[in-house]
Amino acid sequence: MTITYDDFAAVDIRVGRITRAEPYPEARKPAIKLWVDFGAEIGERKSSAQITRHYSPEGLVGRQVLGVVNFPPRQIGKFVSEVLILGLPDADGEVVLIGPGHDVPLGGKLF
After folding, report:
1. Inter-residue contact 34 to 21 (CB < 8 Å)
2. What is the pLDDT along the chain (111 residues), one digit of tens a residue?
3. Which of 23, 25, 68, 98 lies at a CB distance of 3.0 to 4.6 Å from 86, suitable for a disulfide?
């Protein structure tokens, strides 16, 4: 399927910094609850991410990640996920997070 530039521009992908991370043992698949600061314009958003293969909650705090900030909130068990954190599958299909190679200002938009 081919999309237009306007279709792409409608997806609001921003950089944020993980400020808090906790195990989410109640999730159907192993997951971690994340709180991500996307800067002054957007603020802090929550997400549930199935990233337990490569990451621990302690190792995630301070890491910059990319997330789609304009999806509607989604109920994940008893937790409301407000942003989709982006990743790519490794050779085994496990999620590897996407983030900038260098620190960038929070809230920066991917273009």
Report:
1. yes
2. 999 999 999 999 999 999 999 999 888 889 999 999 999 999 999 999 999 999 999 999 999 999 999 999 999 989 999 999 999 999 999 999 999 999 999 999 998
3. 98
Phi, psi of 22 (to 5 degrees): -140, 145
Those residues whose C-beta lies under 8 Å from the C-beta of residue 110, and which sit 6 or more positions away, are: 13, 14, 15, 66
Tokens of 21: 């991370």
E-only strand ranges, 12-59: 13-23, 32-37, 44-49
CA distances from 44 to 18, 77, 96, 110 (A): 9, 20, 22, 18
Residue 87 has what DSSP assignment?
A: E
User: Where are the chain's structural domains?
Assistant: 11-97
Q: What angle do CA 50, 55, 60 make, to 5 degrees?
A: 105
Between strands 13-23 and 64-68, the pairing is antiparallel
